[in-house]
Write a structure and sequence with these properties.
Distance between the termini: 101 Å
Number of strands: 36
Strand content: 25-35%
Structural class: alpha+beta
Radius of gyration: 51 Å
Helix content: 25-40%
């Protein structure tokens, strides 16, 4: 660019372009100034500081002494000229950019001025139109008033004489005038009052005063004339006038936005985020798309992204943890006025076959022990008993076998009083010591019941002496632990035991609040065919009612039905009442806590959180975190042989006990690995998993359904059925150690369906059966299945066809069967006939 003043830069033109000129100089170099109406920009000219030009050529290039060798004068001049041209071109481009920026700024300012001028013109035009309309309306009202007055002036006044003459007898208002009279007939005239009202309304309308509001009121004249109607209210008119005033003054301000505290979990759905901010979901999605996230309102976003969205909408984000969902469970502080006395919870504990269930049967006057396989208790039971004196007691009966340690621990944790049953002829045994440890850990009082006192070999003194070794000092030996000598067979000492329990409960002063939301402990859980998941719950506080929504462990549900220990349906269960709860969505773990919540959404959210936490915990426990752990695990896997098994049981507690027993089997060379454990009948999915893993299936008091049996036979999967945990543990231990001797194998020889049950004197209940598969033999063993669950196992008392006693009945024939010492038969039950044989097994 040349130094000539007044030339315009390249690309700038038009009437509003800036003018370029040289306005001042510093030494040998001049600055270029771009001037507009509003802005002045100074651009350095080539050769000035920061933008060197021809005058700014480095001195060493022109000095011959500092010139590089081998370069002639002509070459140097050519290079200097090229350098000057490049720097001049760069300076010209910078000047052009500055001028273009000035022109763009002027164009933006021009557009703003045009918009402001247009808005101002519109406001002035609207104001003029409103003023003109008001003036026209006012002039029209005045003209109406003047016309009305002129019309009234032309009409002759009505006098009382004329009125009396018109009302005289023989005259009517419509009488014709006298002949030759030119006076017209006058119609009905308005009274002075009507005329005054009309004049007043017209004056008020023309005046524009406060009386205009009367125009909206319905008067008698308006109603008779039919001109009246419903008009807008005064408040609506005021709002309209206020909006018009604000619009005319340019004061249309939006209402102040309400800032909310938005609770933000780790992840949140877009729709839920919009609801918590009280914003439209479409606006939230639009904001996320501006951030580069193509999401819909039903997708989940992380907490950091949601926090950015919340800040963009002007709200405050409050971070909450996933565990905060459990805060909805009410932690009610019970007052002394609400707490009332409750029945004590008494747990019966002791060694196996010491008579715990028999003692409880004697108290309840029932016979539970006869229904247990092998005569030993393998389930935890909860019962409520009312004594002869009217006191109510809740009993928990726990198993005594070594495998049921967790059941005994649960019984001790939920109880108020522990009754330690010790056989007088057997003294203190290992599970007795364990029960003492559980009672001490739970810090609950203990009552020692020395059972089987009616036997000749009974030695209660030895029992008391053996208890001293475990820091249990009974009252007989100057201690503080109550002891009672009882006999479940003869009933001796039962009254004394109940009195001791009542005395201990009175000392404890047990109280609970029945008015609060219920909470309790799961004693046992199972999957019942036809009823679904069923949990035996001991209510500890509050009242559990039908229809309550609850969460228990990783499961949730709504109370569909409550069944007490007598099998009766009840509507509610108070503190210390054991009930069966129906309505769960899954099988909870025995020992889980049940809490009632307000809504189904809360229950589902808590259950989902607990399930996720448990899943993460299991994954973390099974994962090796370091290289050393991985190496040690690989080395151990090479040495240890595993016996994979699948376990299915009838109730959750039994499955848990079997798992703990399996973990204890094995040494450094062999171990048992439980691939899967569950509750309910054996299904096709279990058979498929067993086939893929090469594992046997162990069924404890459950059976495989028909399709699972067929699939197992086709795939060669072994299914073992057990009803006594002794046999199960011994067989698995023998299989794992490789020391299997002759084992007793059961061969199923037939199935029969009960069609009808008959009562026969001197015999009992006789089942009329139809043999559906195989053959029924008199000498074979039988099991009674109800909904694929073992109800009874024993032998046949009689097998008859017509009136004759027979040895066997073939398939498709009818027969009569009676069980030995068992009469609880129902139509529709299935009888499984089997034979036991000893088979020598060889290891593969």
């Amino acid at each position: 660019m040349s130094d000539t003043d007044g030339k315009k830069p390249l690309g700038l033109g038009g009437p509003r372009s800036g003018q370029v000129k040289q306005s001042f100089s510093h030494g040998r170099t001049k600055n270029v100034v771009v001037e507009t109406k509003r802005k002045r920009v100074v651009v350095p000219k080539p050769g000035s500081a920061g933008v060197p030009g021809a005058a700014g050529t480095p001195s060493h290039l022109g000095d011959p002494s500092k010139r590089p060798a081998g370069i002639s004068d002509a070459e140097m001049e050519r290079r200097l000229a090229a350098l000057r041209n490049a720097k001049a071109r760069e300076a010209g481009e910078a000047l052009q950019r500055a001028a273009e920026e000035v022109a763009r700024e002027e164009e933006r300012q021009r557009k703003r001025d045009e918009i402001e001028a247009k808005e101002r013109e519109e406001r002035e035009r609207a104001a003029a139109q409103r003023q003109k309309a008001e003036e026209e309306e006012r002039a029209k009202a005045l003209s109406e008033v003047k016309a009305s007055r002129a019309e009234d002036a032309r009409k002759p006044p009505v006098t009382s004489r004329t009125q009396s003459r018109d009302e005289a007898p023989g005259r009517t208002a419509a009488a014709a005038p006298a002949p030759g009279s030119a006076k017209p007939v006058l119609g009905p005239r308005k009274t002075d009052r009507e005329r005054e009202e009309r004049d007043r309304d017209a004056r008020a309308k023309a005046k524009g005063g406060d009386d205009v509001r009367r125009a909206g009121k319905l008067t008698l004249n308006d109603a008779l004339a039919g001109d009246g109607g419903r008009t807008r209210s005064l408040a609506a008119m005021k709002r309209k006038q206020e909006k018009a005033r604000q619009k005319a003054m340019g004061l249309n301000m939006r209402a102040e936005k309400m800032v909310r505290d938005v609770q933000l979990p780790e992840t949140i759905v877009v729709q839920e985020l919009a609801n918590r901010m009280a914003e439209r979901a479409a606006d939230v999605v639009k904001s996320l798309m501006k951030m580069g996230m193509m999401v819909t309102m039903n997708q989940t976003i992380d907490a950091d992204t949601a926090e950015l969205v919340i800040g963009e909408f002007g709200h405050r984000a409050v971070r909450v943890s996933d565990s905060d969902v459990e805060q909805v469970i009410d932690q009610v502080q019970d007052s002394d006025e609400d707490r009332i006395s409750r029945p004590p919870i008494v747990t019966i504990m002791g060694h196996v076959d010491h008579g715990k269930t028999s003692l409880l049967d004697a108290i309840r006057k029932t016979s539970v022990v006869t229904g247990e396989a092998g005569g030993i208790t393998q389930h935890i039971g909860a019962y409520q008993v009312t004594t002869d004196k009217g006191a109510t007691l809740t009993f928990l009966d726990t198993p005594g076998h070594a495998a049921f340690t967790s059941m005994r621990a649960r019984g001790a944790n939920v109880t108020d009083i522990v009754v330690l049953v010790v056989a007088a002829d057997d003294a203190v045994m290992p599970q007795t010591v364990e029960a003492i440890a559980h009672a001490k850990a739970a810090k609950v009082p203990m009552i020692v019941a020395i059972n089987k006192i009616d036997k000749k070999s009974a030695n209660p003194a030895k029992v008391r002496t053996d208890l001293l070794q475990h820091d249990v000092v009974v009252e007989e030996m100057s201690g503080d632990v109550l002891d009672v000598e009882v006999s479940a067979v003869t009933g001796q000492g039962l009254d004394g035991l109940l009195e001791a329990i009542a005395l201990q409960a009175e000392i404890l002063d047990l109280r609970a609040n029945p008015k609060r939301a219920a909470s309790g402990a799961v004693i046992e859980a199972k999957l019942d065919v036809g009823r679904g998941p069923v949990a035996t719950v001991l209510v500890q506080n509050g009242t559990l009612r039908k229809g309550d929504i609850f969460v228990v462990g990783e499961q949730w549900g709504k109370v569909r039905s409550l069944i007490n220990d007598k099998g009766e349906r009840i509507d509610e269960a108070g503190p210390s009442v054991p009930v069966e709860v129906l309505g769960l969505n899954g099988i909870p773990q025995a020992g889980d806590t049940l809490n009632v919540v307000e809504t189904e959404a809360q229950a589902r959210e808590i259950a989902d959180y607990r399930e996720k936490a448990a899943r993460d915990k299991r994954a973390a426990a099974g994962a090796a975190t370091t290289l050393e752990q991985l190496m040690a695990k690989a080395k151990a896997d090479k040495k240890v042989s595993e016996l994979p098994v699948l376990v299915k049981a009838d109730v959750q507690g039994s499955a848990e006990a079997i798992l703990q027993a399996m973990e204890k089997i094995g040494n450094e060379e062999v171990r048992v690995r439980v691939l899967h454990s569950g509750v309910g009948a054996i299904t096709d999915s279990d058979v498929g998993l067993a086939e893929a893993s090469g594992a046997p299936i162990i069924g404890f008091n459950v059976r495989a359904n028909a399709s699972a049996r067929t699939s197992a036979n086709q795939k060669g999967v072994e299914i073992r059925y057990y009803s006594v945990i002794y046999d199960l543990v011994d067989d698995v231990k023998a299989a794992a150690s490789g020391l299997l001797k002759a084992e007793v194998r059961e061969t199923f020889i037939g199935y029969a369906t009960i069609k009808e049950v008959f009562k026969v004197s001197n015999v009992g209940n006789v089942a009329g059966c139809l043999v559906t598969e195989g053959v029924a033999r008199r000498s074979a063993g039988v099991r009674l299945l109800r909904d694929n669950v073992v109800i009874h196992e024993g032998t046949l008392k009689t097998l008859k066809r017509f009136k004759d006693e027979v040895k066997e009945v073939q398939s498709g024939q009818e027969c009569g069967m009676a069980f030995e010492n068992y009469d609880n038969l129902r139509a529709g039950d299935v009888i499984e006939i089997f034979e036991r044989e000893e088979v020598e097994r060889k290891l593969a």
